[in-house]
Hints:
Helix content: 55-70%
Main location: membrane
Coiled coil: 363-408
Domain HAMP: 316-368
Transmembrane segments: 12-30, 290-314
Pfam family, one: HisKA
Amino acid sequence: MRTSKLSIRLLWYITPLVILPLLFLGGFTLTNVTSSTQKQAELIVSRFVEQQQQKMFNYIDSFHSTTKLLSASPVLSDFLADDLRDNGNYTRRLGALMDVFASYSEAYPDIVSVNLVSPDGQSDAYYSSNLNTAPTSYPFFSQVLQSNLRQQQFMVQKQDGTTSLYFIQRIYSADYYLKRPQQLGFIVLHVEPSILNTSILEAPYNNTLNLLLTSNGKILFSSDYNKRGQYISEYELQQIHDLADLGKLSTIELSSIDKVERMIYAIQMSGGYYYVSTIPKALLYQSGKAISLITALIVIISVITLPMLIFIVVRNLLLNPIELLGAASHRVGDGDLSVYLPAHNNDEVGVLFNDFNHMVNQIRHYQDELEEYKHHLEDKVESRTKALETMNSQLEVAIAQAEQANQLKSRFLANMSHEIRTPLTAIMGFTEQLLHSQNTTGDAWHLNTILRNSKHLLELINNILDLSKIEAEKLAVEKEPLDIVQLIHDIDSIIRPLSQEKKLNCNINFHLPLPRIINSDSTRLKQILINIASNAVKFTEQGLIELDITYNSDLQLIEFAIKDSGIGMSEREVERVFKPFEQADTTTTRRFGGTGLGLCISKNLAQLLGGDVYVTSTPGQGSCFCVQIACNLPADKQQTVPMLTELSQLTPAKDLQLSFAENSFDANILVAEDNPDNQVLIKLLLQTWGLEPDIANNGAEAVEMALVNDYQLIIMDMQMPVMGGLEATQMLRHAAYDGPIIALTANVMKDDVNTYLQAGCDEALAKPIDKDALESVLVSYLNIEKDSQNKWDSLLNSEKFQQINDNYRLKLPGYLTDVTQLYNNGEWEQLRALAHSLKGSAGCFGFSNIHHAAATLEDNLRGRDHNRRDYLALSLIEAIKYTLQQEQSLTKK
């Protein structure tokens, strides 16, 4: 197979990319093998030496303790008493002492002999496990006499190379009255150190040489028996001393022992002895060398094979299909359209093959079409040219629109981010200030700022939602009676404070006559006028804001002209001002803020209200927005339309009856709301009006509380857990609750409101809560309940009711007789039925004591627990008697 240039180039690129990392990895591995081997060996040897040191220390310390314990033996003290030879008990006490020595020798098999030596070096008592005689002297005894230590140990090497341990303990008298204790002798313990012999033979590696040296370099113990008794040079001893101070593995050649370079780890023991563990360096790195060779071999094999394997895989997956595709393309270029690439894997190459086959089929199809239309080619070319020109023009328009839409989107997102973050920053900042500030001087101003920014944020969200509804053609408008004077008064109360903040004059001009009442959507009309008027204030730095109201009787349109002396707009800016997400200029956004939605929404709303919005403007001189709205007056000419003809009619009349300031109510109100924050807010509002509501956390609780208690009005949230407000309202109406139910919800679309009203709600209020709207609704319905209560009071004071009440009082003695008789006879079921009857009738005629006593007795007799039925029956009897006595007292008076 011919090797392509791409294959050679690919091999040139792959080879260094594979070889260089492998070489680096191999070198790094070889470098770390030696280091890790040395560290591992040092760790193993150091732990081994420390374990051996601890083992020897424990071994020696145990015999020191044994010697000390033996010196404190009471038998030994008795033997050393002054009257030993005088009273003739020497033989008995010596035998007892020998028994003690023998017990210690049996307990510790390494003990060869125990000798009691007098202060002058004579043996007073001697015990040997091998029955030897007491030695005449010890080579170290002169050192013992010169030393003041109570405990001493010595290692003495014999001629055969073995080493014995001797532990010496001074014995003093127990006379505490002497200023200086009297020395009575020494205990000399001779030990054959089996543990030291076995420990010195243990090794972490093969061919390890362990040594125990004296301070002058003599080898007392050695894992190589032939090395015992030899001396190492002073230079080597000094090196070992230095290594013991450093506490690490190092390379030293002990020429006194052999010529082998060794890795040595040494520690210094008590008494000036050194424990040394040595390992031949060649042996230590033997495993590391094997690993290094294996690593090097793997690297060499990888360097050779990996590039070839990668090349083969890439060639089979990519190069061969490319060559096949290139050959097919060459044939197509020569005019051979019978080419067909075989099916390939379901990958990118397979997709490329399918696309190539599709392309060849399309070429064949187009060639057939060319053959078909070759006789009228010029017509086809001309029509195709025109189609292409049209398509190009459409494409250019689409590209321009897409670019414009992209710019508008970016600008809108930037504006919305700024507009939303600005009030949120104020809300969060002032809220945090109120939470952490101890000074309450500026709280009202802070709260006003939070409220103002919250309303602004709500307005932004409403604008976005309104635009979405308008574009979806789902925004519905109402046609309800609307008072023009009240409308303009509401607009003035909002715009005039804004004007006064910027020191602008604000004028409102009524061009009489005007219809007092029109039929339109008050909310949407206010939204239009406030939006345009607030824009006028925003874009005016000095001068005035003017609102003219005119009535066109021919077209039955009312016109609101809002003029300002602000920055104005050019003709091009006027053309763009009613488009969504746009403002007159990009600098306007940076300077004045805004989302670019207000005027677009206002124009759409005006059209929905049967009118439109027009604008005229001059740059630098100001603008005039003209809002026209259909009046929707009655078509019947016989109906007279009230008109405003005098200035005295331009003052709005406020309904004082819809204010808590003019009314007082003693009403029980239930609030069904699941959100704790909303619960606190509603309760706070009602408390400011003198009302203390009960709170239900869900619809189920609301139903239960409403059926148990007597509520004059219920405020019902529609979205709650367990049971929603809609289901709770339906259940209350089915249970014959006839009081007013006010729906409180964030879903205030027309269809939603109709659903709430059909379920049994009397009114629907929107969230966030409008304080004035809530006050008006509450006063209106509580006045109705108050009128009903007054009618009931009138009924209770009527002559007919008094006659019925007197007849009931005459029946009370008979009821008293019946209750007493039933109680005495134990006829509890009949008594329960009579109590039920008394509960209802006594409550209706105002005898509350009889009503409560009968109700309690009925509940007890209805249940299973009858422990208190006697007491409750007697309570009912006493209640009737008390009522009769009260009636008699009133009759006498």
